[in-house]
Amino acid sequence: MTSSASYLLPLLQLSDSALPTGAFSHSFGLESYLERALVHDEATFGVWVGQFLHQQLTYSDGMAVRLAATAGDRRQVRDLDLRMAAQALPRQIRAAGATMGARMLQIAGLVVPCQSLEEYRQDVSDGECLGHPAIAFGLAGRQLGVPLPEMLGTYLFSTVTSLTQNAIRAIPIGQNAGQRVLRASHPEIASAVERIIRLDPEDLGITAPALEIAQMRHEYQRARMFMS
Amino acid sequence: MGIGLRAGRSMATRQYHQGALRVIRPHYLDDSGQVTYVIVNPGGGYLGGDRYVIDIDVDEGASLLLTTQSATKVYRTPNGHAQQDTNIRLGAGAVLEYLPDQLIAYRESTYRQRNTVHMHSDATLVMAEVVTPGWSPDGARFRFDEIRLRTDVYIDGRLEVLDHVLIRPGATEVEDMTFLGAETHVASLLVVDRRVNQELVRRLHGLLKPLDPRGLMGISLLKCPGFALRAQGGSTEELNRIISTVVGALRQGWNGQGPIDLRKGEPGAHRRPAEDKGGKGP
Q1: Number of domains within chain B
Q2: Is residue A87 less than 8 Å (CB to CB) from chain B?
Q3: Does residue B264 register a pLDDT over 80?
Q4: Touching check for B238 and chain A: CB below 8 Å?
Q5: Taking CB atoms and an 8 Å limit, are A210 and B164 in contact across chains?
Q6: With contacts defined as CB-CB under 8 Å, which chain A residues touch B219?
Q7: Which residues contact B206 (CB under 8 A, 6 or more apart)?
């Protein structure tokens, strides 16, 4: 009898877009693009989410998953957390990382209890670390023995899925339109995974200026649906 | 160079240079005791394979305004990239305002800049940067190969700010709506000071609104006391206006100093040469 990899179900659980990390309340700057009508339908959202994936999501979360999954010890995880907090210049993006990181840590600790997650949780509760979902996910993925490309692809797709669900509500676009955007993201995610594996660790935190400005401007936007 | 405080005035207590970069005679723009130095590059610009290292120490209580005489130009770099590393140390109560002119990268150039700041939690850092779409003989924009600008700020030894901009026109679509969109210039201003709080950031945001009718500027509180400002635009001048408005407001609010008026290239009315008691003149 054939059986699936032992990590499959825990990985599906951690990457479920219904995972209660609060991703549904963060647009990561998308809402500023909606306000300026630069994103207003399926096509423009598809373009935006592709750019988001290849820029900020690659250089921050994607690199953080990889570096957490390959971190040698607790000190390296702390250093990674510090760099992730320092590179997030917009206040709401740091807050999103901290809130979602705390939730992801709690859930990952239930799904895959292990020492590295427990140490990270401790460092966050002591204020030594800020917390970030990508780091918690990378630590859990390593514990489960998930190969890095699958770990990265799963994390990126889960993030793109959450953003798409937010776009379905906020633009709004139809459910089928959302599924078309997700299907179209598959090759984009595959190429992002390949790049993340090859990037220099020093490239962590490279910014996309207009996106970052949109994320900063969101603080002053009126009538917000999202917290970032 | 090292800047120290002597009888209420800041001055160079040690100074050394080798190679292409020079600083011109220090001057004092006002009666605050802050010393101003201007970096000049007599060669006109950076070439491939060039590596520049600038070390700046501002000692306890001293204050330095550092600027450049003209835009930083990076010429074609067929023999390897040009690099500038700036290492800054700020003691307790030290002030550094580092406001260089814009960066102009020529066709087929690669430039890497790394600023590393180690500061005391009671020091003040104000650092700006304007990046232009560069220069090419046919007037086309973004013909350089790569610009990489990285700034790391450590407060009392702990990393607080990591700002990393990479513009690689061949690989990234600069006109992406998440990158530069329809704009051509990008400015950054980093201010780290224990007096910065959300209220100040909100006030500055209001102050800048009239200068940003198209909504191309963001300002946000950092993880440490301080803020980052990022702005896009179509010219160096409009971005410099935003930077000088903020810097002027901070100088006025924190030190009662007036706005910066360097009157580059000609002796200004209140540009008073120093007596040069410190290190040897360049």
Answers
A1: 1
A2: yes
A3: no
A4: no
A5: no
A6: 216
A7: none
Residue B76 has pLDDT above 60, yes or no: yes
What domain range includes position B25? 2-265
C-alpha separations of B11 from B54, B242, B256, B269 in Å: 17, 29, 20, 21
The torsion angle over the Cα atoms of residues B146, A83, B94 and B126, rounded to 10 degrees, is 40
d(CA A88, CA A211): 12
User: What is the mean pLDDT of the segment spanning B149-170?
Assistant: 97
Q: What residues pair up with B6 in beta bridges, in sequence order?
A: B9
- Residue B273: per-residue pLDDT: 41
Q: Would B279 be classed as within a structural domain?
A: no
CA distance B197 to chain A (A): 12
* CB-based contact, A95 to chain B, within 8 Å: no
- How high is the mean pLDDT of chain B? 91
Residues 6+ apart with CB under 8 A from A92: A215, A218, A219, A227, A228, B220
| pLDDT at site B43 | 84
Whole-number Å distance between alpha carbons of B40 and B69? 5
Q: What is the DSSP annotation of A23-66?
A: GGG--TTHHHHHHTTSS-SHHHHHHHHHHHIIIIIIIIIIHHHH
Domain membership of residue B272 (yes or no) is no
Nearest to B228 among A55, A89, A206 (CB): A89
Is the Cβ of B207 closer than 8 Å to some Cβ of chain A? Answer: no
The residues near A129 (Cβ < 8 Å, ≥ 6 apart) are A77, A78, A81, A82, A85, A120, A123
pLDDT at residue B274 tops 80: no
Task: Kindly tell me the sign of the dihedral angle through the C-alpha atoms of B265, B266, B272, B273.
Answer: positive
Within a domain: residue B117? yes
A91 to B221: CB separation less than 8 angstroms, yes or no: yes
Q: Name the DSSP letter for residue A16.
A: -
A-chain CB neighbours of B159 within 8 Å are 82-83, 86
Tens of pLDDT, residues B140-149? 999 999 999 9
* Cross-chain Cβ contact A213/B177 below 8 Å: no
Please give the pLDDT value at position A91: 98
What was the pLDDT predicted at A17? 84
User: Average pLDDT for consecutive 10-residue bins of chain A (228 residues)?
Assistant: 81 93 95 97 98 98 98 97 98 98 97 98 98 98 98 98 98 98 98 98 97 98 93
Which CATH architecture group holds A23-219? Answer: Orthogonal Bundle (1.10)
Among residues B244, B281, B235, the alpha carbon closest in space to that of B262 is found at B244
Task: Report the alpha-carbon angle B167-B171-B175, nearest 5.
Answer: 65
CA distance A205 to chain B (A): 6
pLDDT at B19: 78
The residue in chain A having the minimum alpha-carbon distance to the alpha carbon of residue B216 is A213
Looking at the predicted structure, is the pLDDT value of residue B72 above 80? yes
pTM score, two decimals?
Answer: 0.94
User: Do the chains contact at B230 and A213, CB–CB below 8 Å?
Assistant: yes
B195 versus B264: the higher-pLDDT residue is B195
